[in-house]
Fold:
Amino acid sequence: MYLSRGLYVFPNKNKIRRFMYDGEEAIELPEITFERQLVNFLEINLTPFNEALDKLEAYTKENTSTDEFLKVMHAIGILAESFCQDEPVYSFLLCTQFYAYSWEITDFNQLYEYKEYAIEMLRNMIHAQSFFFSVADAYCRYEGTHEEKVNKVFLGRERIFSFQLEQVIAHTDVNTKMFQITNPKLPYNRGYRFDNLPDYIWYIFLHAMEFDVNFSQCDYCGHFFIAKTKKKTRYCDRGRTDDGRTCKQIGPQQIYKLRINHSELLADYDRAINRNYRRVERYELKLDDEKQGKDLSYEEYADWLQSLHAAKLAFMSGELSEEEFREAIHRID
Ligand SMILES: [Zn+2]
Structure:
């Protein structure tokens, strides 16, 4: 059986076994549920790549020498190989994409093309995070049953959510650790091979949505988490103060104070999120990609939303004035 480099994933109910196969050997990662993988991906810090992207875009054929291109691409390669090592699946997939562009780069023009390719790969990764951040945020903000929330997120978006998976069928006889059976009742394993991060995250998201796993967003800090009980849980367990108190401990009182003292501001905040989300939805339904008027992309929306969550937190802790918080609310009006 011929195997090429990629991430091999074998689902077993709501869990997956993951094998990073580099073309020679497979390394198994710890088993994980779909929803944990999703929460983890939404948390990773892609700022270094945003910065790298800005730099890469500034290098043109006119202002850059071969040597400079080589140095920059080398630096990006190191960044891709080393980021997020506590969950190496992202780095592995990003590098798989980088290595896929495998022709020998010998001259200046090929180097330039490779740079353009790298820009696209980084953009796709950042876009995937923005997209799922805004979708997950919409899912959590909507009050209702799991089915109603999923409906809210998927309705009319079949085009966006459709994608192809490369399926792998492995009979249990395959004598490698990678194909150890995940479903002991069957004589074969059905899994998938991924060679890029966005596809993997699509897959993770769609499966995370299949089960009602209490996927939640913290009212206080805005981070995602999996609640331990079926009861609606509004606050996460992340430590928020120097003495280790969590969102669950300090959040309710802070939010209560905010509701009592600044109800108008809070309503303004909620309206802005809904209004801007609709702008994204409208733009998404258009057939042409030309942005007009109030159109908003996922990246812009997610960027704003993340900074808005931070602004709300800073306002509640007194680091931001009311005026500054209002400015954050209306920044992309
Ligand atoms: Zn929290």
